[in-house]
Fold these 2 entries.
Entry 1:
Amino acid sequence: MMPSTDALLTAENLTKHYKDVVALNDVSFGISDGITGILGENGAGKSTAIKIFLGLLQPTSGSAIVLGQNASESVSVRERLGYMPEHDCLPSQVSAAEFLTHMAEVSGLPPSQARTRAADTLRHAGLFEERYRAMGGYSTGMKQRVKLAQALVHDPTFVFLDEPTAGLDPAGREDMLELIRKTHREFGISILFSSHLMADVERTCDRIIVLQAGRVVQSGEVKHFTKETETVFIEVDTNRERLVAALEARGVVVTADGRGLYIEGPDESVYDHVRDALVDAEAPLRRMAPRRRALTELFQRDGDDFESGVVT
Amino acid sequence: MTQANTVEGTVFDIGYQKYTGPREGRNRARLSVFKDGVRTSLGFGRGARAKVLPWFFIGVLVAIALVMALVAGAAKGLGSPEDVAQLNLPSHSDYYGIASIIFFVFAAVGAPELLCPDRRDGVINLYLVRPLTGSDYIAARWCAFFMVMLAVAWLPQIILAIGLTMGDPEPAGYFRDNWLDIPRFLAAGVPLAAYTTTLALVTAAFTTRRAYASVFLVGLFVITTPFTTGLAMEIGGTAGQWISMFNLSNIPVHVNDLIFGDVSEITSVAPAAELSAGILVGWYLLWTLVPAGILWIRYRRLTP
């Protein structure tokens, strides 16, 4: 994903060294409107990239432009940015309403508008009833919601979410992902969503950037990756081996998985091959359905990790 | 109520509203951190436990001033003006010296509250991604605690001034003779507040644990006083004077003495009081500006 002229964020030849450790190595990409996932294992450089965009770190070389400005040189651009950190960042003795009002003021909003925005944002985050309770008594899910709310309270143009589902149970995780989708869909705020959980990124993001050891190893539209790996799933009652042989005789790539068979990369002709092979093998068809591979499978194909399918 | 008078309402969910109002930028951010610092120092917006310690110490400082005023008033009521003058009752020039240890304990307890939780809880990360630099943050926090310390220094002096004036058989005459004490104690409060604020905040800047910072500061002020006083007395001479300079509680009180033009009860026994005004002021500035510089550098580095 090369920098484009309509990009909200642009990294050009971005490099960051911590003494002998290279956190980012000549990274270039652009991020436009929508939800973009930045994927990578721990130490891949996700948080370093976010901190450079927020102006908290100075790059060793290259440039990081946010909303047309360099965040480390222009403090004012941060009025339009939001940040939800991965780790705890909430004072325990203060209520969510007071904390968000304060954070809105620190973002530059006048006190009366800050109070109104804090109440509105907590309502959208599903915490309106709990807003006057001290945050020390909140559950992990509620704390994650407050963390997201503080990132949105000043109505930023772009928001950085660092591992927003960390520590959440499945239900809490689903709620958080829905809230993130809502943040873009209904609030019109663009998002950079950092995670090491591919399932979260796949379900939430429009685009992904995969970092490994400080380099971009994959980037593009999520639907492009999943479309590339579209498969057909077939399940038969008997004669499974004969069906596999019949399919392979027609040049179709087949992968057995449990009781079913996966057929790779279908186009219209694949369905004809399947029909003919089923007839030849005398295999009674129980189920046939198109299926997209998960991103996890794409990047971990054949036991490899993110190295698979590296784009240059 | 008749049908005609019934008002029916409908609640609409108008959804998310974009913010189109003013954005006041860095100055609003600084002001907000300052206001939050004042509120935190005094326990406002927090639970009852957060209010106990600051208001206890404020109460003690006011009580000292009240006792001083009552004793002076009682003495004036019992004896002639000559007898009262011979008693050499403590007044405005002595107050900061007498109460200095309480100021330091107040600062030791209050200042870490402004910095330590922000770093321990990670709130500092949320400040620094907003239109605020590390320098802005620490300057706003310093100003907030300085204002609180100044108010805490002035309040008992104002109460003392009212008490001494009202307790005198001739209030108007007392005021006419002693009104200069008011600008003096207002001026003397400034170096005291600046010194205690800076030393307390610089200590708090190096730990995320409030208790560590508080214990270290209390220990520093409490231990240096008897240690340096005893050693200075024992050694005597110029060396004794310089050892006496390391009595951290007395450093701003020497400046107080210079402003009042009188040696207070507390510093009257300190050999350092015999040193020149230039040395005493220079020593005070060294102990205030160097920690202030360290504090600034420590927070400036948080943002590039």
Note: Residues 301-312 of chain A have pLDDT under 50 and may be disordered.
Entry 2:
Amino acid sequence: MRQDSLALRRQRHLSDEALVALVARGDEAALGELYDRVGRVAYGIAFRILRDERLAEDALQEGFLAVWRSAATFRAERAKASTWVVTLVHRRAVDIVRREERRRAEPLEATTAQDAPDPAGSAEDEAWLGFERERVLGALAALADAQREAIELAYYGGYSQSELAEMLGVPLGTIKSRMFAGLARLRELLDESDTERTWTPRLTS
Amino acid sequence: MDTEAHELIAGYALDALEPADRARAKELLERSEEAREELRSLTETTAAMATAVSGPAPPPGLRDRILESAREDRQTVVPLESRRRPRLVPLLGAAAAVAAVVAVALGVWGLSVSSDLDDSRAALTQARAAAAVLASPDARQVALQQGDGSLVVSGSDAVLVLNQMEAAPAGKTYEVWVLDGETPVRAGLFPGGGSRDVVPVDGTVGPGAQVLVTLERAGGVDAPTASPIVASNPV
């Protein structure tokens, strides 16, 4: 089946989940479209963990290869497709950071200065990302300090629970409970702000 | 789920577990629907954390390099798949009646089976589940009242084998249902579009139950909203 240009035009209207279904059938154009939609965020998180362009690129290559190979196992009832892709890339980035022993986990705010618009991204995408970023940063800021520290160092720093226990000088059990409490609270806060947004759209922060 | 299980799943969602705990988490996820649901929900939260990151845009050549490595991967995966098949078929060959179906099933799943990445574990589990049903000595075929294919049943496990299902249109998915009594129960989603789709039916398919497929919105729904495209005879 060689209908790439037709497929390309068609794919702009497909859901992320439908794209993954096409990727499962070996459709490269669908993989490219998925990259166009999720690549920006996926690269952002990989770079945040690895702080190195070449390593972040490795994480994306490996993560998208995992998408390519395991698209047939994707189940829409388990996750949104975009979430699934980000999860695979995050896992690669964490594997790489542990392998490379690169450990840089300054607070999240420290990187905002490097923010640069993606020349390939549309203005709508950028606006949405900016909006979403404000919402999530707001929710993170509302967490108890110890909880925020635990989940940020884990997710943005790639630290394991035992590494964090040692680094912060607290029992492993404390780290585990802070992570769960922090993540569960963040979920609540995001759900609330999502509802809020539905009722009263705020376009500025 | 107890506190320990919740903490394990949270650690897994953050990719913060040590290898031994990660293995425990995967084991828990395999047997507990509640744990899978918790992971689904917490993963949306961690993915939201990813969107909060500011940073440089991806390098311009990365997209091409990713597509290039996918293309190369396709060339290496195919031979792997054909190497593995002969090893698995004798193992499964006992059920002569469904042998052809098994070969097709393994072909369909070959790409996942040959992947050595972490996530192939789930695929492998599912492929094994499908293969186990298809190859089981007591496997029997139940005809479809509607649709092209058959339902293969072993004990209370079942696999739908469907021919020439068109790919579900944009924003839609095929959803499988088990009808045992009045209320259809969700039994999995699949995109269709293969020359032959081999779809494990989630949950149990008891005597007298029927398996149905409807076309629903992406992500699936809790109760069917359309009339069935595929319907099996009662098991």
Note: The CA atoms of residues 36 and 163 of chain A lie 35 Å apart.
